Amino acid sequence: MQQTTNAIVMIRPVAFRMNEQTAVNNYYQKVLDGLLPSTVNAKAQQEFDTFVEKLRAVGVDVTVIDDNLETDTPDSIFPNNWVSFHENGDVALYPMFAENRRQERREDILDTLEEKGFEISNIMDYTSAEEDGFFLEGTGSLLLDRANAKAYCALSPRADEELFIEFCEDFDYAPVIFEAFQTVDGERKLIYHTNVMMCLGETFAVICADCIDDKKERKMVLENLKADKKEIILITEAQVNNFAGNMLEVRGANDKKYIVMSASAHQSLTPKQIAQLENHAEILSSSLDTIEACGGGSARCMMAEVFLPRN
Fold first, then answer.
1. Which of 19, 225, 255, 302 is most deeply buried (CB count within 10 A of its CB)?
2. Which Pfam families does this entry report, sorted A to Z (predicted)?
3. Which pTM value belongs to this model?
């Protein structure tokens, strides 16, 4: 199984803003005072377009799909939470915590991929769990080590343990389960998505071990990464706040590997960490300040990786 892909789907926002429904447990979101919603959306579109240009310039196959105004989907720019695409032709659809995010799931996006020659053989639909109040938000909640058939998950209101285990059984992944915390106003609170504090590359892992308060759990997670011969690059909670955990390794032209992140994540890294990462792949960063502030997500969340077979 490949750990990285050359193909990604990205959703261009039309009414991006801070989503009040996700802000209840996404402590990275901020209100940008004095900016009109239209200004926020225009800035987000500009950041989005520049980011796509940079990815395409190095040969990443980016399928851009426009969001539509009919649905109130302020977070549609983060498609990796509602869908994942797998090498065997499976597509997984996930249950979402915020009601207004459930409308992001669009069949026409799957149709567009099929038109591009990707093969979809089966849809695994977990979305009925929403009715019972259980959630698992795609590759925000799940970090898939596809090559080693392991899935990492930091449990939270958006990542239910039983659902996660069900996913692992369906897709033949060994579950690695833990809790990750951040400090909010002096209190330790669960981090809403695993991919904020951790990134899995082919030969490396970026992780904020300090977020895993339970020492046994921390040791277990690190031992799993070491067992798979990944170089562990530790980041701090301050760097997590700059979205340094929210990176993704992708492949460009001639299978060249890139580690994609935001400018704020890149700027927060030390020279030593940058050197460690550059041993594995070239860094590609782009300014996502508005998207990060209002959306509480960053570069990795904006890219839904496509591992589907191509005809």
1. 302
2. DDAH_eukar
3. 0.93
